[in-house]
Each structure stands twice: as structure tokens, then as C-alpha cells.
């Protein structure tokens, strides 16, 4: 089915100047960028986005990292978009990510792993709603 998923190019990848290279991975795989913007998260918004991780030992580091610089947030659309984007990203820990994935090619540490992608269609709907209103999403399915 055609799905939408939510994606972040994190501060480390923006800092490495590889936004375009990462967007190319999405497009070459058949995903369409149907919404996008650059934002600098507040700690409150980062905490809201990562609410499910609030009790984890790395939560404060995660919020600190995600607020350390601007990020790109985007909605990707296409066949099986949630799983396809997770395949493109590779494992959460770049050290374990398969060759040729975004995290293998652009990241070194689990705490600074270049990209985020929704883990389910339900998460995608929630995450998209945190960053985009309906009139900012230009579906091309
Ligand atoms: P993400 O997909 O954005 O969702 C939660 C994030 O927590 C994850 O990517 C990692 O970047 C981060 N994370 C997971 N494990 C650790 C860890 N042990 N230390 C720091 N950050 C982590």
C-alpha cells in the first residue's frame, strides 16, 4: 500500500553537509518527499517527540543531541514507505548497519546516527502531526 512515513535528517548529518545525499537515497529508492522543512528543536519539543524514551538512561543525551543544531524534517511517501525507509537507514547503531545504508555511510555512533524514521504507520501519523499541518503536505500518490 502507498504509505507516508516521517523522517529526520539529524544535526550530525546536517553538520556534515549531506542533506542532499540523503534525500537522493530516498528519491532513488522511489520515495517522494511530499513535505519538508528545516527546524531547530526546543528541548520541550524534542522531549515530546521522544516521549516513549523518557525513562531511558540516554534520554537527556538524546534531547541534548537533537537540540544541538538544525535538523531537516520530511514526510516520505511511497509503496511500503515505513519499512522501505527503515531498510534505507539501516540498523539504529551505525556499527551494526548493513553496507550501503544511510547510517553505515554517514554515521559512526548510535547517539548520532544521521537519520530517524518512523517504526510503524501509527508512529508515522503521530510524528507527522508533531511537525506538519495538513496544508503543508503535498501528497503525490
Ligand atoms: P531514533 O530512531 O531517532 O530513536 C531513538 C534514538 O535514541 C535512536 O534513534 C538513537 O539515536 C538513540 N539511542 C538509542 N540508543 C542509544 C544509546 N545507547 N545512547 C544514545 N542514544 C541512543
Automatic annotation (TrEMBL):
Alphabetized GO MF terms: ATP binding; metal ion binding; nucleoside diphosphate kinase activity
Species of provenance: Natronospirillum operosum
Residue sites binding ATP per the record: 10, 58, 86, 92, 103, 113
Domain Nucleoside diphosphate kinase-like residue range list: 2-139
Pfam short name (any one): NDK
Keyword RNA-binding among record annotations: no
Entries under SMART domains matching the protein: NDK
The protein's name in its UniProt record: Nucleoside diphosphate kinase
Chief location: cytoplasm
Subunit structure: Homotetramer.
Class of this enzyme: transferase
PROSITE patterns: NDPK, NDPK_LIKE
Transmembrane regions: none
GO biological process, one term: UTP biosynthetic process
The organism's place on the tree of life at top rank: Bacteria
NCBIfam families on file: PRK00668.1
Active site: 116
Gene Ontology terms: cellular component: cytoplasm
CDD domains with a match to the protein in the record: NDPk_I
Organismal lineage: Bacteria, Pseudomonadati, Pseudomonadota, Gammaproteobacteria, Oceanospirillales
Enzyme Commission code(s) on record: 2.7.4.6
Function noted in UniProt: Major role in the synthesis of nucleoside triphosphates other than ATP. The ATP gamma phosphate is transferred to the NDP beta phosphate via a ping-pong mechanism, using a phosphorylated active-site intermediate.
Protein encoded by which gene: ndk
Similarity remark: Belongs to the NDK family.
Matching PANTHER family: NUCLEOSIDE DIPHOSPHATE KINASE
Transmembrane helix keyword on record: no
Cofactor(s) named in the record: Mg(2+)
Catalyzed reactions per annotation: a 2'-deoxyribonucleoside 5'-diphosphate + ATP = a 2'-deoxyribonucleoside 5'-triphosphate + ADP; a ribonucleoside 5'-diphosphate + ATP = a ribonucleoside 5'-triphosphate + ADP
Keywords of the record: ATP-binding, Cytoplasm, Kinase, Magnesium, Metal-binding, Nucleotide metabolism, Nucleotide-binding, Phosphoprotein, Transferase
Amino acid at each position: 500500500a502507498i504509505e507516508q512515513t516521517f523522517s529526520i535528517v539529524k544535526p550530525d548529518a546536517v553538520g556534515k553537509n549531506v542533506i542532499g545525499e540523503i534525500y537522493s537515497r530516498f528519491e532513488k529508492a522511489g520515495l517522494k518527499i511530499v513535505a519538508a522543512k528545516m527546524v531547530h528543536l526546543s528541548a520541550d519539543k524534542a522531549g515530546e517527540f521522544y516521549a516513549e524514551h523518557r525513562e531511558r538512561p540516554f534520554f537527556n543525551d538524546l534531547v541534548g543531541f537533537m537540540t544541538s543544531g538544525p535538523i531537516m524534517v520530511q514526510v516520505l511517501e511511497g509503496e511500503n514507505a515505513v519499512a522501505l525507509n527503515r531498510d534505507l537507514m539501516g540498523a539504529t547503531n551505525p556499527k551494526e548497519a548493513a553496507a550501503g545504508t544511510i547510517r553505515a555511510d554517514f554515521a559512526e555512533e548510535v547517539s548520532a546516527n544521521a537519520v530517524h524514521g518512523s517504526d510503524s504507520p501509527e508512529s508515522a501519523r503521530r510524528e507527522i502531526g508533531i511537525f506538519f499541518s495538513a496544508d503543508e503536505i503535498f501528497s503525490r500518490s
